[in-house]
Structure formats: structure tokens, C-alpha cells
């Protein structure tokens, strides 16, 4: 089970929904066999969340040991909001 404090800190830092975080975790799992919890912690660490504040030292060390084996997966920027308006005359 993912530590709720880490998940909340990560959601706040990234400014995404739980669903968007879940998609990032699944994308990482597609490339590397890793548990959902570990993938969440890897994403949190890579985004500057201090795992030591929330996890036991042994677990934080295990996640740090995983980091070199887990590739950086690029994330597309968020989409949202209305499409950009085109100024000027349309077809005139």
C-alpha cells in the first residue's frame, strides 16, 4: 500500500489528479517490472519528494537502489482547457 502522505505530496507537487498519477505509474510499469507502490515512490523521488521523511530507512534505501534500473520515462505536458483561439479573419 502506497504511503498516503507521499502520494498526497506528489499529487500536490505535480498538480495532477490521482488518475493522472496512476497513468504515470502504469507507463513506468510498462517499461519495467515494478510494483505500483515502488513505481509511485520512484516517481516521487525523481520529483523531489524526500522519501526519508515518510518511509522507514530500509524501504527508502531499497527504492534508491531501484533508481538506476528504472529508466526516465518522458511525460507529455498536461492538456486541458479550451483550444487556443485563432485571431484574425477566418476565410475572408
The total of helices stands at: 4
Distance between the termini: 59 Å
- Biggest sheet descriptor: none
Query: Structural class, from secondary structure content?
Result: mainly alpha
Strand segment count: 0
- Low-pLDDT windows of residues: none
User: Can you give the mean pLDDT?
Assistant: 87
Helix content: 40-55%
| Binned strand content | under 5%
Order of helices and strands: HHHH
Short description:
The protein has 92 residues and is mainly α. The protein is built from 4 helices and no strands.
Structure description:
It is a single chain. The protein is mainly alpha-helical and 92 residues long. The chain has a domain at 4-54. The chain contains 4 helices and no strands. The mean pLDDT is 87.
List keywords for this structure.
92 residues; 50% helix; mainly alpha
Summarize the topology.
Elements lengths: L3 H11 L3 H14 L4 H11 L10 H10 L26
Helix pairs in contact: 1-3, 2-3
